[in-house]
Inverse folding.
């Protein structure tokens, strides 16, 4: 591995550190994906969350680098970024391909590889922001060693990964607070799963700045209107 290389773009880091709703395309109508992503971009969304699942780390299979490539130009032309959440085993094997396809941030699961530090470095060297995700049962302290060095974003799963539309797990709020206290200020804190009108504000109060919303935005008949409602519900407008 080289050690000299690219770093994440400042504009990407800025967007990841803002208080934002990040719509997840997992709940979108794939037959009208470009149109629906266009609607939320027009409503102000700038962080588009892409859930890659491999049928091994989590049971479902969704999509991969081809989907990142399909959305990259549209999202970048609107001033947005692609926040790619890899729910796949041994994610280190796919970092370069996903980065080349146009990802701006790549988040891996600490449970999915023995080589978290290596993979986070590889993500940065590929020019992307490096994120690490924790399943509900994984202690907040799992990021202790890497949190001060190679981490741009911590993702706290507030449901078990694999499916949209699940109930928010209440102890996630306390975990978010502990993560926020433990991590340096420059590390973004993202919460993912079960974030809707009632759970958004408590997540912000607990210290999350980036709120992934799948069913609450793309599951609604009017994703742009639902995006605006989520911004209001989270108190981040
Ligand atoms: C689930 C995914 C989420 C999913 C969230 O494993 O990581 O990003 O889209 O969906 P909602 O917001 O419906 O819980
Ligand atoms: Zn996700």
């Amino acid at each position: 591995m080289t050690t000299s290389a690219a770093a994440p773009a400042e504009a990407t880091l800025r967007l990841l550190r803002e208080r934002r709703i990040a719509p997840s395309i997992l709940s979108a109508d794939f037959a009208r994906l470009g149109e629906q992503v266009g609607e939320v971009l027009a409503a102000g969304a700038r962080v588009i969350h892409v859930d890659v699942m491999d049928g091994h780390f989590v049971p479902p299979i969704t999509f991969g680098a081809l989907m990142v490539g399909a959305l990259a130009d549209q999202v970048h032309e609107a001033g947005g970024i692609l926040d790619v959440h890899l729910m796949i085993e041994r994610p280190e094997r796919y970092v370069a391909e996903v980065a080349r396809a146009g990802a701006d941030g790549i988040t891996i699961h600490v449970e999915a590889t023995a080589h978290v530090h290596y993979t986070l470095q590889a993500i940065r060297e590929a020019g992307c922001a490096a994120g690490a995700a924790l399943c509900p049962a994984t202690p907040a302290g799992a990021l202790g060693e890497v949190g001060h060095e190679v981490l741009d974003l911590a993702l706290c799963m507030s449901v078990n990964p694999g499916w949209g539309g699940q109930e928010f797990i209440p102890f996630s709020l306390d975990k978010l607070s502990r993560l926020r206290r433990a991590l340096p200020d420059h590390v973004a804190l993202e919460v993912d799963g079960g974030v809707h009108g009632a759970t958004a504000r408590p997540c912000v109060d607990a210290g999350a700045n980036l709120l992934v919303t799948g069913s609450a935005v793309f599951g609604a008949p009017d994703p742009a209107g639902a995006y605006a409602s989520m911004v209001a519900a989270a108190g981040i407008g």
About this structure: The chain has one domain: 10-234.
